[in-house]
Amino acid sequence: MIDSKDITFRPAQRADVTLIVAMLADDALGQTRENYTQPLPSSYYKAFDLIDQDPQHELMVLEYRQEVIGTLQLSFLPYLTYQGGTRAQIEAVRIRQDQRGKGLGEVMFRWAIQRAQERGAHVLQLTTDKKRPEALRFYESLGFVASHEGMKLHF
């Protein structure tokens, strides 16, 4: 286990994009979605710039002793239901492969839950691929409930 006192969260910087994409591409599903080549396609930097400029999105990195070992994105979605509430969406949660199994996923989610509450969200939601049953069990252990059936239309 890693001592949580040695862990920090900070907003991602443009210089972190290569490390973030490497983590996103480093699993069976990510390998089919990401284009981790050097240099990275400009689309990653364009997306980073859009995220970075929008206060409703927080792209974060997790550092251990000043080394990036994880990432997540929180998006805050205001809407009219729930009396004009805010929904927080967590996406792209990844831990660097050599750091997995050390409890960092739980540290990241506890941080995200607290951050969503600080920003006034009434719910934190996520989607998980059905090909990742271990992820589903992990999310359930944190109190997430599979209350809805999600659907996607890819273009």
Would you write up a description of this structure?
It is built from six helices and five strands, in the order E-H-H-H-E-E-H-E-H-E-H. The protein has 155 residues and is an alpha+beta fold. It has a five-stranded mixed sheet with strand order 1-2-3-4-5, sandwiched between helices. The longest helix is centred in the last third of the chain and has 15 residues, at 104-118. The mean pLDDT is 93.
Instruction: Provide the β-strand percentage band.
Output: 15-25%
CATH topology (fold) name of the domain at 4-13 and 56-141: Aminopeptidase
Number-wise, the strands total 5
* Coarse morphology: globular
Q: Mind summarizing the main beta sheet?
A: 5 strands, mixed
What structural class is derived from the secondary structure elements? alpha+beta
Percent of residues in helices comes to 25-40%
Distance between the termini: 41 Å
Give the ordered list of helices and strands: EHHHEEHEHEH
Specify the number of helices: 6
In terms of per-residue confidence, which ranges show pLDDT below 50 for 5 or more consecutive residues?
none
What is the topology, as strand order, of the major beta sheet? 1-2-3-4-5
- The CATH class of the domain at 4-13 and 56-141, by name, is Alpha Beta
Relevant CATH superfamily of the domain at 4-13 and 56-141? Gcn5-related N-acetyltransferase (GNAT)
Mean pLDDT: 93
Quickly give the CATH architecture of the domain at 4-13 and 56-141. 3-Layer(aba) Sandwich
Quaternary structure: single chain
> What is Rg?
16 Å
